[in-house]
Design brief:
The complex is a heterodimer of chains A (267) and B (367). Chain A has 267 residues and is of the alpha/beta class. Helices cover 37% and strands 22% of the residues of chain A. In chain A, strands 7-8-9-4-10-11 form a 6-stranded mixed sheet, with helices on both faces. In chain A, strands 1, 2, 3, 5 and 6 form a 5-stranded antiparallel sheet that branches. In chain A, helix 3 runs parallel beside helix 6 and helix 5 (128-147) packs across helix 6 (163-175). The longest helix of chain A has 20 residues, at 128-147. The radius of gyration of chain A is 19 Å and the shape is globular. Helix content of chain B is 70%, strand content 0%. In chain B, 40% of the residues are buried. Chain B has 3 domains: 1-35, no CATH class; 38-336, Orthogonal Bundle (ABC transporter involved in vitamin B12 uptake, BtuC), CATH 1.10.3470; 341-367, no CATH class. Chain B is globular, with a radius of gyration of 22 Å. Chain B is an all-alpha fold and 367 residues long. In chain B, helix 4 (71-86) runs antiparallel to helix 7 and helix 7 (112-134) packs antiparallel against helix 13. Chain B has helices at 2-14, 16-35, 38-63, 71-86, 89-95, 103-106, 112-134, 141-159, 161-164, 179-197, 200-210, 212-217, 222-248, 259-271, 276-292, 313-328, 341-356. The chains are: A alpha/beta (267), B mainly alpha (367). The interface between A and B is medium-sized, with 38 and 26 residues.
Chain lengths: 267, 367
């Protein structure tokens, strides 16, 4: 069953076609990757899916499962980002966007706001319902921080964390929205090979433990080829290849996009 | 029963310093209320009103990061609501002598507290209409729109002769002279703001200030959250305006020039955008400072008749102060910190270290 589909999505900025006729189909429980050279339109594709941009044309369809276990496909094209997040699509950012002046735990707690079921008046009056909600949210966030190895740093300012841990915090924050689909925008950017390995393990574990479907943009080919079930390759906004890691690796178009025209140089 | 007693006991044990401070504060207000002369009393009242309005402004500007400059307008709405509804009916004919009061209002007189809350609510309604279009935009449009709004309100009030008595203003509003009204309200509003800021709503406000795109991606509805903050701020400001009217006993449109807003802006920048205790401290500093520097507005008295001492020089001092802060001390007095016991203990220790380099002691933060 597909969880996220896009139908002929085109995103145009003036004369620039950043994403041209994007058709993706991500099945529930799979780990898909979006790769491509710089400026290929990968982040734009993410921004269209998460509602930052409304596409020039085309449709984005998401299939959340409700509490009763019934899955219905919803058209989320051009909906507000917070509504889309509320349906179960969470994301991280390529250029880390933490709430810098807030503490680590506050960063994660912000993401539980959409599940808060009490009004600001009961928050001021600290009604039992609000207190219970606050306690629950705190417990959830501590659990997530524990999971991502940040629990000892929970009272530090987010901006004071080292780079790698900031990336982890972004993932913790995204998980706190209780997503079905997690979009990771270059989670391993700027990491050394060892850190990348650790991250690979972590992503894999989180995927099973939280029952996630993951769609990620990544440049580290080792990571991508190792863990993805399905890869989409973009170049100048167009999808030039899709399929399993093996199929994509051997596709002449992909080799051309990455290495240039005379593509004898594989290996 | 016993359990609740235990709970209260545990709570007191944890917060005894705060409890002692509150008791001292209340006793202090009580004493001041009985023993100070009317000049000091009026000043202290004004301080409390400035605390209320600045805090409301900081909620929107400092915590939510929305640059709003409509304080004077919201205050005017609150002040006029209190004025119109509390002026004794028998003196209305004498006040509205150019044009009688509109019949639908002429015979309504409400108790002060009801009028005060009504003033807050009237501000909320106005804030809703101004916020609906402006809070959807990003950037500084809100500042321009709210600034314009506060001028429009003033001009509207100047021209609605039968309701606000136009440029003549409304006199003989029953005054409050007790400190309890202003300080009681200020305390309630401070407590409410602290509780709000430390709840999930407060965190949502701060997340918008930090990064709108990330906040939205984490499921914080930008418009709804900004609107919540803006409306709460407007309510507090309206209440502050109502108290202002009742303190002075008279309102007229000239009191609510947009320059009034800059007083509050000065306070929150001085105290720290995003600090409640900083705002409170700065409110007292600025309000009392404006009074203490009054001699600058008068011609120099010692023989030399220096032409630089003239009305308005006071404000030059404050403008200069604001420039110095913005240039060298951008985060204000407190930054986004709060003056908690732990914070004071920490500061006490660091100052002690700097001064003597002696052994650090454990008794810091006692007062």
């Amino acid at each position: 069953m597909s969880l996220l589909r896009t139908e002929n999505v085109i995103m145009q900025f003036g004369g620039v076609v950043a994403v041209n006729d994007l058709n993706i189909d991500i099945k529930k429980g799979e780990l898909a990757a979006l790769i491509g050279p710089n400026g290929a339109g990968k982040t734009t594709a993410f921004n269209v899916i998460t509602g930052v941009y409304a596409p020039t044309s085309g449709k984005v369809l998401f299939t959340p499962t409700d509490n009763a276990g019934i899955a219905t496909e919803i058209d989320i094209t051009g909906k507000k980002p917070d509504k889309i997040t509320g349906m179960g699509v969470a994301r991280t950012f390529q250029n880390i966007r933490l709430f810098k002046e807030l503490s680590v735990i506050e960063n994660v707690l912000v993401a539980t706001h959409l599940n808060a079921n009490y009004s600001f008046l009961s928050a001021i009056l600290r009604t039992p319902k609000a207190q219970k909600g606050e306690r629950q949210a705190k417990a959830e966030c501590e659990f997530l921080l524990e999971r991502l190895g940040l629990i000892d740093l929970q009272n530090e300012k987010a901006s004071s964390l080292p780079y790698g841990q900031q990336r982890h915090l972004e993932i913790a924050r995204a998980l706190a929205t209780k997503p079905n689909l997690l979009l990771l925008d270059e989670p391993a950017a700027g990491m050394n090979p060892q850190e990348t390995d650790e991250l690979t393990d972590l992503i894999f574990k989180l995927k099973t433990d939280f029952d996630l479907t993951i769609f990620m943009i990544e440049h580290h080919m080792d990571l991508v080829m190792e863990i993805s079930d399905h890869i989409y390759v973009l170049d100048f906004g167009c999808t030039i290849a899709k399929g399993t890691p093996e199929a994509v690796q051997n596709d002449p178009k992909v080799i051309e996009a990455y290495l240039g025209v005379d593509a004898d140089v594989e290996n | 029963m016993k359990e609740t007693q235990n709970n209260i006991g545990a709570y007191l044990k944890l917060h005894w310093k705060t409890a002692v401070f509150l008791v001292v504060l209340l006793v202090g207000i009580g004493l001041a209320d009985n023993f100070v002369d009317s000049y000091v009393r009026r000043l202290l009242n004004l301080c409390a009103i400035y605390v209320i309005v600045s805090l409301a402004m900081n909620l929107v500007n400092g915590f939510t990061g929305q640059f709003s400059l409509g304080q004077a307008g919201f205050m005017a709405i609150g002040a006029y609501t209190v004025a119109v509804f509390t002026v004794p009916i028998e003196s209305r004919a004498a006040i509205f002598y150019l044009e009688p009061m509109a019949p639908f209002l002429a015979n309504i007189q409400l108790p002060f507290i009801v009028a005060l809350i009504l003033g807050g609510l009237a501000s909320v309604v106005a804030a809703f209409f101004i916020g609906s279009p402006c809070l959807r935009l990003r950037g500084d449009y809100l500042a321009i729109a709210t600034l314009g709004f506060s001028e429009i309100i003033r001009i509207v009030f100047t021209n609605t002769q039968s309701i606000t008595n136009g440029a003549l203003g409304i006199k003989s509003i029953p005054t409050i002279s007790s400190l309890w009204w202003t300080y009681g309200t200020a305390l309630l509003i401070i407590i409410a703001t602290v509780l709000l800021i430390n709840s999930t709503y407060g965190r949502a406000f701060k997340s918008i200030r930090e990064d709108e795109i990330a906040a939205e991606a984490m499921g914080v509805g930008l418009f709804k959250t900004k609107m919540t903050s803006f409306l709460i701020g407007a309510f507090f400001t309206g209440v502050g305006g109502g108290l202002f009217a009742a303190l002075l006993g008279t309102v007229d449109p000239k009191q609510f020039y947009f320059t009034l807003t800059y007083n509050f802006l000065l306070i929150i920048v001085l105290g720290g955008m995003g600090s409640i205790s900083g705002t409170i401290i700065a409110s007292f500093v600025v309000t009392l400072g404006q009074e203490a520097l009054r001699f600058l507005d008068e011609p120099m008295a010692f023989g030399l008749d220096l032409p630089i001492f003239r009305p308005g020089l006071r404000m030059v001092v404050f403008s200069f102060l604001l420039m110095v802060i913005v240039l060298f001390y951008r985060k204000g007095l407190m930054g986004t910190n709060e003056l908690t016991w732990d914070f004071m203990a920490l500061k006490y220790q660091s100052i002690k270290k700097k001064l003597g380099g002696k052994k650090t002691s454990n008794e810091g933060g006692g007062n």
